[in-house]
């Protein structure tokens, strides 16, 4: 199974919401996903229902003390496993930024501890292109890019695509990617315009499934729940189920 980084340098585009709910959909399909929270804000950790995390039992413990990833796994209330984040992760750039080998730590850790499980691994990235995000991108087989249906996000995805192209040149390998449009409001002409522009520029890289902007998706993380637990019949649940199926059908998780 694939290692998938969910990444966008722009905030507020549904990055954590997408990582949470695709992970949940994979869990419902009994694929036993593992979620890694690489964002010091720890929003994926909270939304997964994980509380009271000490730094040494989080991703910070892996980067600071080389704690094996397998020993950091936590069971979530909904059945999948996760490695949580804490604010201590924000120090990793300062601690490891001068080490040229630091960007490969996560890849080595996954190969040593989790590769044999065969489970899909979802990584919620920090929204900055630093040590943490480079670790995620170098360890990943795929990148899922949530883009909200607004003008500034449209501009940001072009810069992000360029950055990934530069990284591909340095890595000497292609980085498979898919773009999913989030916060889509069918009442707004702009939403359709943004989607059409992305399709015109990136073609089949853009998912056909669009994630509607709904109250359920906004409020479910406050309760430590994914959308399938919080509002299983809501448009948000239908959208994320359809997105996961679309990605599965195109071998994104393989």
UniProtKB/TrEMBL annotation:
Gene3D superfamilies hit by this protein: P-loop containing nucleotide triphosphate hydrolases (3.40.50.300)
SUPFAM superfamilies: P-loop containing nucleoside triphosphate hydrolases
Residue span, AAA domain: 1-175
Record-linked InterPro entries: AAA_dom, DNA_Partitioning_ATPase, P-loop_NTPase
Protein name (Swiss-Prot/TrEMBL): Cobyrinic acid ac-diamide synthase
């Amino acid at each position: 199974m694939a290692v998938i980084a969910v990444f966008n340098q722009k905030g507020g585009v549904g990055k954590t919401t997408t990582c949470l709910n695709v992970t949940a959909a994979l869990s419902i399909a009994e694929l036993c996903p593992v979620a890694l929270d690489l964002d010091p804000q720890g929003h994926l950790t909270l939304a997964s229902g994980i509380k009271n995390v000490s730094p040494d039992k989080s991703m910070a413990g892996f980067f600071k003390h080389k704690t094996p990833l397998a020993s950091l796994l936590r069971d979530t209330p909904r059945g999948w496993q996760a490695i949580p984040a804490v604010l201590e992760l924000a120090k990793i750039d300062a601690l490891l930024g001068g080490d040229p080998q630091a960007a490969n730590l996560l890849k080595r850790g996954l190969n040593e501890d989790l590769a044999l499980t065969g489970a899909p691994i979802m990584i919620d990235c920090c929204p900055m292109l630093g040590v943490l995000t480079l670790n995620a991108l170098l360890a990943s087989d795929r990148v899922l890019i949530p883009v909200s249906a607004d003008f500034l996000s449209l501009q940001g995805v072009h810069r992000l695509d360029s950055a990934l192209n530069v990284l591909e040149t340095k890595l000497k390998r292609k980085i498979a990617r898919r773009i999913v449009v989030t916060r889509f409001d069918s009442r707004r002409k702009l939403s359709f315009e943004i989607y059409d522009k992305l399709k015109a520029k990136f073609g089949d890289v853009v998912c056909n499934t669009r994630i509607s902007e709904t109250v359920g998706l906004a409020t479910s993380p406050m309760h430590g729940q994914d959308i399938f637990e919080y509002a299983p019949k809501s448009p948000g649940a239908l959208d994320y189920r359809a997105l996961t199926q679309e990605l599965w059908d195109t071998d994104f998780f393989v």
